[in-house]
């Protein structure tokens, strides 16, 4: 699979999870590769995604492979359609850092997790080569230098990624676009991405107060720098894998709507 050739740490991390016979909820479905792996490891799987397209694609994938599942369902992490104590594990890869109201999301997840259950998430890492050097320095400098050239028609063309960034900068103003928080939104998952957050352990503890945490960094990835793979990932990797256990003494209350 092309995805796992690029991100070989994902199956390694999934294979370390004890999911056999466990009820597992996946938040954000992507192309379904993680769901398929979890099901084949014996998980009693269901999943949710905000978009009908992702849900339909996932149903088709699992039906073609004749894999058992419950759902998936179209739903928001801000309003999960499951009763209290429904799942042994909640898994989410590359989704919760795109949720502005992450405090509400973690309360919803806390509600549906059984006592002693676990939330496993991948969040973009603040203390990473990709964020500290590629996004914060190199890509901003490249856009600043290229902006007048693209506007003059000397660079870009054919609907390039650079053109999309320049168009965004023209809409909101170049200096505002280059502000690091705004620039981060548009340099994790493309220039049309509305929101992204980067995490360190301190922010994890701030945004997931109902959980206790254990974290590790994986995946050295920092385009345009020619680095890729596992060398140095524990220090400056881009993917922060966090295992969170509910603080059981907290009263399990869903957020008000």
Features of this protein?
single chain; about 260 residues; alpha/beta; Rossmann fold; 2 domains; 9 strands
CATH superfamily of the largest domain: Vaccinia Virus protein VP39
The top level CATH class name of the largest domain: Alpha Beta
The stretches of 5 or more residues where confidence is low (pLDDT under 50) are none
- CATH topology (fold) name of the largest domain: Rossmann fold
Tell me the distance between the termini.
41 Å
Which series of helices and strands comes N to C?
HHEHEHEEHEHHHHHEEEHE
The number of domains is: 2
Q: Structural class, from secondary structure content?
A: alpha/beta
For the residues shown, what is the average pLDDT? Answer: 92
Number of strands: 9
What general form does the structure show? Answer: globular
Largest sheet: 7 strands, mixed
Q: From the alpha-carbon coordinates, what is the Rg to the nearest angstrom?
A: 19 Å
């Amino acid at each position: 699979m092309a995805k796992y050739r690029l991100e070989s740490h994902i199956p390694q991390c999934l294979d370390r999870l004890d999911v056999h016979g466990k009820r597992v909820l996946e938040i954000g479905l992507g192309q379904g590769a993680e769901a398929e792996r979890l099901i084949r490891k014996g998980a009693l799987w269901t999943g949710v995604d905000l978009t009908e397209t992702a849900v339909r694609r996932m149903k088709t994938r699992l039906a073609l492979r004749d894999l058992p599942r419950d759902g998936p369902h179209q739903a928001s992490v801000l309003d999960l359609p499951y009763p209290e104590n429904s799942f042994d594990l909640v898994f989410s890869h590359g989704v919760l850092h795109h949720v502005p109201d992450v405090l509400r999301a973690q309360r919803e997840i806390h509600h549906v997790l059984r006592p002693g259950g676990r939330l496993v998430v991948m969040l973009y890492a603040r203390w990473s080569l990709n964020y500290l050097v590629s996004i914060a320095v190199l890509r901003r400098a490249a856009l600043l230098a290229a902006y007048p050239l693209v506007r003059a028609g000397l660079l870009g063309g054919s609907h390039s990624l650079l053109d999309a960034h320049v168009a965004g900068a023209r809409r909101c103003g170049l200096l505002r676009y280059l502000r690091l928080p705004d620039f981060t939104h548009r340099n994790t998952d493309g220039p049309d991405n509305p929101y992204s957050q980067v995490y360190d352990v301190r922010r994890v503890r701030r945004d997931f107060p109902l959980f206790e945490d254990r974290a590790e960094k994986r995946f050295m990835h920092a385009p345009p720098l020619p680095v890729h793979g596992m060398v140095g990932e524990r220090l400056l990797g881009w993917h922060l894998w966090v295992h969170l256990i509910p603080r059981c003494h907290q009263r399990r209350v869903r957020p008000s709507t």
